[in-house]
Amino acid sequence: MTEWAAGGGMAIWLGILTAISPCPLATNIAAVSFIGRDAGRTGRVLASGAAYALGRVLAYVVLAALIVTSILSIPGVAWFLQTRMNQVLGPVLILIGVFVLGWIRIPLPATKAGEALRRRAAGAGVLGAGLLGMLFALSFCPISAGLFFGSLIPLSVSARSPVVVPALFGVGTGLPVVVFAVMIALGARGVGRAFDLVARVERCSRVLTGTAILAIGIYFVLTQSLGITL
């Protein structure tokens, strides 16, 4: 139970870190701008914020469920992961830590089709907010892709949770937008200053999290792959 709770907490934190990372933060700012168009209609703003978060949750759950279920349904792969997971995790965590720290950058090109879908979603009200959440969730950049495929998927596999753990990750990614939607609905001032604060917090959180992931990866390599007792 304690391990499961720790896994769920880690999934939420990975989601929050994904949401406030530079590339996803830009899409979340766009989402807040879209939601903020109805600043005078409290109910619509809150509904749009909730729909956006639910859209992200749904996208991540469907994608992760397909991947995790496929992995667990293949006996050879499932056996390999169950017996060699700790050995595999070391190099993977080192690579993820390097990505999170920004030591390696791989630009991902945007597609015109994706931009067209986003413009259509932006004009579809509350339902469009949900669709926008799904589109933004699937618009992976290096950091978000690394955290999702390199950290969340192994976490879901080890917990044998193709739905709940990815759902918690999705909740974490949508949480900042929900908070800003509530601020807009309540007429709170200083939303721009709050975004600046989030950007500063992100830099500190990314360094701390990236360093921790890198250190854990090195520990796993030394103890599980090389058999060194520390």
Give a written overview of the molecule.
By secondary structure, the protein is mostly helical. It has one domain. Helices cover 83% and strands 0% of the residues. The chain contains nine helices and no strands. The protein has helices at residues 2-20, 22-35, 42-73, 75-101, 112-121, 125-138, 142-159, 164-185, 191-225. Helix 4 (75-101) crosses helix 9 (191-225) and helix 7 (142-159) packs across helix 8. The longest helix is centred in the C-terminal third of the chain and has 35 residues, at 191-225. The protein is globular and about 60 Å long. The model has no long low-confidence stretch (mean pLDDT 77).
Provide the descriptors you would attach to this structure in a database record.
9 helices, single chain, mainly alpha, 230 residues
- Unreliable sequence segments: none
Domain tally:
1
Beta-strand level of the residues, as a percent range?
under 5%
* SSE class: mainly alpha
Oligomer status: single chain
Task: Summarize the topology.
Layout: H1 2-20, H2 22-35, H3 42-73, H4 75-101, H5 112-121, H6 125-138, H7 142-159, H8 164-185, H9 191-225
Structure summary:
The chain is an all-alpha fold and 230 residues long.
